[in-house]
Write a structure and sequence with these properties.
Blueprint (H helix, E strand, L loop, with lengths): L1 E4 L13 E4 L10 H12 L21 E11 L5 E8 L3 H5 L5 H5 L4 H9 E4 L7 H5 L3 H15 L5 E5 L6 E5 L9
Antiparallel strand pairs: 1-2, 3-4, 4-5, 6-7
Length: 184
């Protein structure tokens, strides 16, 4: 096997100064001779497989950050309209830390869930904005529902664990969540 330097302009896809493997008999000299040698080399070279496509994350592996819900009773606005369907997003560390600075929460820790829910509920019916004042005026059953829903969403689906009785070996579930949001 002999290696030769390709001449400028000789052959498609081969640039000046490229090294080409030539197999077989001695290359012929003269006009157009290098083209024949390169063509012979290209014909005898193994065909390489196309490069694999870049990997794309499957849709199933994307993180779901918003969760729809429907309130048991619904929030009633000043005009008497009932808003039941909404969307809650995953909470961030900031969502749980900022309410701790709120004076209302410092005076009454039970207010933490109201402020926290006001931050993570992104949509409620056709209200233009959801804030802690809206959550504060919800029915108690809706507030309890939202507190439980918050725990489920932010604890990857649920806060219950399957356990087994050490005495009778009967399986059952226990609630792992705290009594208020932000507790565990």
């Amino acid at each position: 096997m002999r290696r030769t330097a390709a001449r400028a302009g000789a052959g498609a896809g081969v640039g000046a100064g490229s090294i080409v493997d030539v197999t077989g008999p001695e290359p012929v000299t003269g006009p157009g001779a290098s083209m024949g040698a390169e063509a012979a080399a290209a014909a005898s070279a193994p065909v390489s497989a196309p490069a694999p496509a870049p990997a794309v994350a499957p849709v199933a592996q994307r993180l779901r950050t918003e969760f729809p819900f429907e309130l048991p009773r619904g929030y009633v606005d000043e005009a008497g309209n009932v808003h039941r369907e909404g969307v809650m997003r995953l909470a961030t560390a900031r969502d749980e830390l900022i309410p701790l600075r709120d004076v209302r929460v410092q005076e009454n820790p039970a207010y933490l869930s109201v402020v926290l829910l006001g931050r993570v509920i992104t949509l409620l019916g056709n209200l233009p904005m959801v804030h802690d004042g809206i959550v504060e005026n919800m029915f108690a059953s809706d507030l309890a529902f939202l507190q439980d829903f918050y725990r489920q969403v932010n604890a990857e689906g649920h806060t219950r664990a399957a356990v087994e009785c050490p005495h009778c070996s009967e399986p059952f579930e226990v609630e792992l969540g705290g009594s208020r949001l932000g507790e565990s």
